[in-house]
Amino acid sequence: MALESGTYLNSLNSANPASTDGLAQADDHLRLIKATILASFPGITGAVTSTHTELNVLDGITSTTAELNTLDGFTGTAADLNYAKDLNATGVTATELDVLDGITATTAELNILDGVTATAAELNKLNGINVSTTELNQLSGVQGNIQTQIDNAGGGLLDYAMYTSSSTWAIPSGTKKLVIKASGGGGGGGGLNPGNLASQSGANGGDTTVTQSTLSISITAKGGLGGNPGPDPTAGKFQTNSSGGSALHGGGSIGGNEGGHHGSVGAGTNGGPGSLVIKEVNNPSVQTISFTVGGGGSAGGSSQGDGVGGYVEFWAFG
Question: Mean per-residue pLDDT for 33-41?
Fold first, then answer.
């Protein structure tokens, strides 16, 4: 009878015993089978309930006992492990993750970072900055590049000029904001001649204009109305139709007083400037601006005063 020898299951020959063999050595085959099974599975001391499919999952595993023991106590899901895999693929190192150790921020605070496109190098610029929360909160509501807004806000005064007669003025290089103030001439005083009570009306003040077509500047500041004799409350008010900026109330001529109304005779007086127009121009190019200044209106008589002349002011801020 053929009988192989061996220690483990792979030593067994499935062709033994041959069908022609007798039963004389059957007990030897049984003892060999039992010995190889026990030698091959020395650690099994109870029932094995795993299926062949479950056991086949281990096929090809090269992990060590220590590596598998790392999962001991793990209660997460496969999705958790996949997340760790994806995180590792981003290149985040253990050292970088350790930076989060001890962070007590809430989910809402961490969500502030959602959508941040800054690189690690850019964020590292914040390392060591001792700006307080209060100081950072002062940036709340900022809607654009801060440096650009500072640049456009204008700095110190680059140039100031005031003219009381017609001329030209050149915008200095580096001007971020230009403010132009233009005033028309005041109206002349008017009233009644104290000797013969004859009407003495003052003349209107002249208009002041400022023009620069390239910068779309076209300002007209109307002169003040001349004073009228008598108690007319409308005398001496500024004229309308000023344009090219924000038109403000002008003085104009005060005009005549109540001469002859109650038997008293008095002289009218000269008024202040005419209408005042203010215009602002942001980031103007270097240009020459032309302007004509309106003169004050002449008085109605020797006892009245002439109107105040107009003027133009230029304020250039860098």
Answer: 89
- Say whether 86 sits in a helix, a strand or coil: helix
Q: How far apart are CA 205 and CA 182, in angstroms?
A: 14
Q: Quote the CA–CA distance of 31 and 33 in Å, as a whole number.
A: 5
Measured CA to CA in angstroms, residue 313 lies from 180, 226, 316 at distances of: 6, 24, 10
CA separation for the pair 205, 230 (Å, rounded):
20
Residue 152: CB atoms within 10 Å? 13
Residue 246 CA to residue 122 CA, distance in Å, equals 46
Give the chain's radius of gyration (CA, Å): 51
In the numeric block, which tokens belong to residue 106? Answer: 């809430």
pLDDT of residue 270: 47
Burial (CB count <10 Å: 0-12, 13-18, 19+), residue 250: buried
Where are the chain's structural domains?
Answer: 1-42, 157-317
pLDDT digits (tens, 9 = 90+) for 223-250: 887 776 655 544 445 566 889 888 776 5
Q: How far apart are CA 270 and CA 317, in angstroms?
A: 35
The dihedral region occupied by 63, where left means phi > 0, alpha psi between -120 and 50, and beta the remainder, is beta
Helix (H, G, I), strand (E, B) or coil at 218: strand
What is the biggest distance separating any 2 CA atoms in the chain, rounded to whole angstroms?
170
Residue 6 neighbours by CB under 8 Å, 6+ apart = 12, 32, 36
Q: What is the DSSP string of 89-152?
A: HTT--HHHHHTTTT----HHHHGGGTT----HHHHHTTTT----HHHHHTTTT--S-HHHHHHH
SS3 of residue 21 by DSSP = coil
Residue 251 predicted with pLDDT over 60? no
Give the global pTM: 0.49
Q: Residue 314, class by beta-carbon neighbours within 10 Å (0-12 exposed, 13-18 middle, 19+ buried)?
A: buried
